[in-house]
Amino acid sequence: MELTNTNENYFNPTSKLKSSPIPINFLPFNKNARYCFYCKNRYTWTQSLYQKCCENCFSQYVNNVDNNNTYLDVLIETRQSILCQEHEKSKNEMFITTCNIKEWCRNCLFIIYFKQIFADHYYFSNFRDYNPMKNCTLCGKLIYQTILTKGDIVFKLCSDCYLISSGWINSLNEKPILILYLPWWDNSDQCLVCNKYLDFISDCQKWCTRCYIIYSGCRYCLTTNIIFGLSDQSQCRKCNRILVISIADIMNITTSGNKDIDALLYDTRFKIKNDHKIINEISSIDITIPSNVYTFLRSNYTPSDYYSIMQWISYSQIKNLEKLAEGGFGIIYKAICPEKNKTIAVKRLKSSQKISRVFK
Prior knowledge:
Layout: E1 3-5, E2 44-45, E3 52-53, H1 55-64, E4 74-78, E5 95-96, E6 109-114, E7 117-118, E8 123-124, E9 153-154, E10 164-170, E11 176-182, E12 185-186, E13 199-202, E14 205-207, E15 213-218, E16 223-228, E17 233-235, E18 242-244, H2 248-254, H3 259-267, E19 270-272, H4 275-281, H5 290-300, E20 301-303, E21 319-326, E22 330-337, E23 342-349
Parallel strand pairs: 1-10, 7-12
Antiparallel strand pairs: 2-3, 4-5, 4-6, 8-9, 10-11, 11-16, 13-14, 14-15, 15-16, 17-18, 19-20, 21-22, 22-23
Protein name: Protein kinase domain-containing protein
């Protein structure tokens, strides 16, 4: 699988698929969500890989798409017991595979799995009923040389139809940060670095409050941008839509209002062994197995120790402030930490409104 630099004028991570003309709302961004974000109906499971889908929103999507373009990479199966008249002639076929949404029959077909969804380490284990397709359904390229009849087979993508890229964007404190452009929909609910459960900002945005890593998805292309730092926007590499990140809630708990202080706080969140190494070497791993991408990233990012993380606490949150002493550079107070109700020491710096990098 190729690695493409973001400085190129154009890059299509899923060239065999078209960007959807309407949002793909029937797939959750949280694999453990129980109810649809939009219609509030309960999600149903696909027959393999334990993926979730909203049947109501899916039905609306099928009705609203009015062309024959290919937007989804899926495997569907016939319901042998209730074949409609149109598909009666194909009753001897175990699977009917198609990417044309208008060929789907809601009366006798159901979804086995979506290839564009990945979370954690996916394996096919129910081989008697649902073997993975040997060939790519988009281009026909051979993906699996052999398929075992016993044991697990790892989930794979086509190296020609799914491409990954990376680059740099500016963070909120104007510091360049790494961004990874994934050609699939990442619906995981835990941080890929520290495994902390993610906070969900919207139906297509989530972030780690410990590592400050943001996951931003495009619902028109089912791609995911992973941003290793705080930023207020990113861009889908397929459709070029600007993905505005709902940063207001994040800013309320992470920013001091001073970019130098914020830069110091952000640097304590995680340790990057070598971000340039990630860009240079990610193309050398077998990215056809999506889990390899996450393993590679974990090996190059080390979450900071809990006690070494610095957090901004606004003055309004501090309780029971009591002056203890005053020196040449500031005043020392005794106070109560709001989160754990602990007694802490607070130092008020003189001329604190003019803080610069020399305070580091």
